[in-house]
Amino acid sequence: MVRPAPCLTRFPAGCLALLVAVGCGEPAKQGTAAGDGAAAAVSGCISADTTAVALAVRDYIGKALPTPQRYLSAAGTDSAVPEDGFKVLQEKGPTYFYGGDSASHRKIREKLASVGPYASLLVIYKGTTETDGGNAVTVQLAGQYVGGEHEGKRAPLKRYAMRCDSTRWTIAATTVDSAP
Hints:
Oligomer: single chain
Largest sheet: 6 strands, mixed
Strand order of the largest sheet: 2-1-3-4-5-6
Distance between the termini: 71 Å
Strand content: 25-35%
Structural class: alpha/beta
């Protein structure tokens, strides 16, 4: 005879809620919203998560000299900052899409000039490389100032070695290339 779990006989409503909350102890199905959330909760960090990119972008723009006051992302190209990184740019200041053609460039430069002579940094995403089964990611970022007195000045290429400490992404090391 199979006996019910002790919590079912003493606290059936609470136990049922607990079983539902943990999915009755079965692993979540991959590819479902519940499965994705459960996988993230179990592993803490997942390589598909762009939180590592957001941390790298925050550090990159926070240490850029001259200090940027506006930000640009290369829209519609593989150099565009991923969504989490773009949100960081938006949190830090006015953010613009810098299109891929000369007409778009001219329009945005006119807009930047009309607003004022603030340092405007185009953040260039150079990609990520995953290692250690997804527990380590290298994020590469570069930059270039657009308009104003810093026109054309390049910000260095930086490689951020990101590690998952089982609960969150952290910057383990930063390498700066002198020539972007």
